Amino acid sequence: MTVWQLARSRQWLGWLGLTVLVAIVCCALGTWQFARRAEAQAEIAKVEANYDREPVPLSQELAAVDAWDEQQEWTPVIAEGEYLVEDEMLVRNRPRAGRVGFEVLTPLRLQDGSVFIVNRGWVPSAGLNAAAEVPAPPAGEVAVVARLKPSEPQIAGRTDPEGTNQIATIRLDGIADRLGGDVHTGAYGQVVAERPAPAETAELAARPVLDEGPHLSYALQWFVFATLAFIGYGYLLRQEWRRVNADDPDERMRAEARRRKAASRRPSDAESEDALLDAVGR
């Protein structure tokens, strides 16, 4: 029986199909890791392009309340208006440095009458479903420098607690429904500075870490696994072919040649004794 005849048998066609399936799964996972790396690189590019830019007026970046382009993320803007403290919201379950807390969202009524949501920072939890004391924002007219961030998606299974000022996520459409009126739903602002400065501030967000993660190495590993699947299939097929053809004269000659070659690579007894004596002598 030739190796190709063995490979075309029902059993080995089944093993080949399984090998192909494993390789497809590995390649799909490798491709997914490449896509994740591309996403991380795109996020890093936005931070590098926008984070340290000079602030521009909010109206220059967001011409309408629903305006948003993902390339605007992290762009610093200046918004002037008055904080609506009575409509302040706390975003629940926001971890930071191993602690759980709340992010403080305070609506800012702009000079044109529209409302822009400002994330004034993070405060720790003071117990079950309760925040520590929230620093008061500046009263009256205020100029806010903030970096633009997109609206967050709805999280399945998480709802806003009724009868409180707490919300589950920064979903701007939901916040607009809650507040009513002309609310910016394209983006909100992550505060950088306020003028006049408040007496006390919440903990501000740190600069994003520019790290694309291990996605490249993971992707390459998955493609290596796909290659190893075929190598393993070929090795097992060859071993099975040798077993099936063990009585074939030609195969017996090849097997004997392999044994002689392996034996020639092993040191003789005399060489082993000399090596042992040398080791003892040292």
From TrEMBL:
Record's bilayer topology term: Multi-pass membrane protein
Record carries keyword Hydrolase: no
Biased composition range(s): Basic and acidic residues: 246-256
GO cellular component labels: plasma membrane
Residues spanning the membrane: 12-35, 216-236
Region of interest (Disordered), ranges: 246-282
Location of this chain's protein in the cell: Cell membrane; Membrane
Domain of life: Bacteria
Statement: the UniProt record of this protein carries the keyword Amino-acid biosynthesis: no
Signal peptide extent: none
UniProt KW keywords: Cell membrane, Membrane, Transmembrane, Transmembrane helix
UniProt xrefs under CDD domains: SURF1
One Pfam family of this chain: SURF1
Main location, first listed in the record: membrane
Similarity comment: family membership: Belongs to the SURF1 family.
This protein's name: SURF1-like protein
